[in-house]
Amino acid sequence: MGITELFNIANLFVLPFWILMIFLPKWKVTQKIMESYIPFIPLAGLYLYLFISSVTPENAEALSNPQLADIARFFGDETAAATGWVHFLVMDLFVGRYIYLAGVKTGIWTFHSLALCLFAGPLGLLSHIFTYWISLKMFSKDSNENTTADATAS
Questions:
Q1: What count of Cα atoms within 13 Å lies in the side-chain half-sphere of residue 100?
Q2: Residues 147, 149, 151, 154: is their CA dihedral positive or negative?
Q3: Which value, to the nearest 10 degrees, does the dihedral of the CA atoms of residues 97, 14, 68, 71 take?
Q4: Rounded to whole angstroms, how far apart are CA atoms 83 and 97?
Q5: Is residue 23 classed exposed, middle or buried when 0-12, 13-18 and 19+ CB atoms within 10 A define those classes?
Q6: Which of 108, 93, 104, 103 is nearest to 138 (CA)?
Q7: Which of 144 and 80 is assigned the larger pLDDT?
Q8: How far apart are CA 106 and CA 74, in angstroms?
Q9: 70-93: buried (b, 16+ CB within 10 Å) or exposed (e) per residue?
Q10: What's the CA gap between 35 and 98, in Å, rounded?
């Protein structure tokens, strides 16, 4: 199997997990699957294979003291680019899993953060952090108003 096929398989492999987290977050099957690390094993295995295939002694030396031009040359190779892309897929899915599990635990809305994470991982994480902070502020404010209203009514 060639690099292009492995690249395509990796892209398709992650989609069911994203669909489950984004569109079926409360389904018990989604929760069971996303509590597991098993989805990451095939992706990490593929990453290891691609990493070993793409790193040559010359690349390893250049990447040990990375310069932007060296990294650009490294990713100019299809195998190296596929390695980098699978790295993104693994890490974005891992961060998406974190966001999903945090949403399940806290009840905070995650649809938008997960969608962003699917396409731009760090922006999804940033969205989740802001959503979490805003939710805490709103919850704390509601909590304080309810406490004050309860005390006034007594």
A1: 28
A2: negative
A3: 130
A4: 21
A5: exposed
A6: 108
A7: 80
A8: 42
A9: beeebeeeebbbbbbbbeebbebb
A10: 10
Pairwise CA distance, residues 126 & 117, whole Å: 9
Q: How far, in Å, CA of 14 to CA of 43, rounded?
A: 9
Question: Is residue 20 a contact partner of residue 30, using CB atoms and an 8 Å limit?
Answer: yes
Q: Which whole-number Å values give the CA distances from 127 to 57, 81, 144, 145, in the listed order? A: 40, 27, 25, 27
CA distance 23 to 75: 34
Residue appearing with tokens 């190779």: 77
In this prediction, residue 143 carries a pLDDT of: 52
Q: Which tokens in the block code for residue 141?
A: 């404010």
Please say if the pLDDT value at position 148 is more than 70.
no
Type of residue found at 7:
F
Q: How far is CA 96 from CA 18, 56, 99, 102, 111, in A?
A: 8, 32, 5, 10, 10
**pLDDT tens for each residue of 59-86:** 888 788 888 998 888 888 999 999 999 9
Residues in the chain: 154
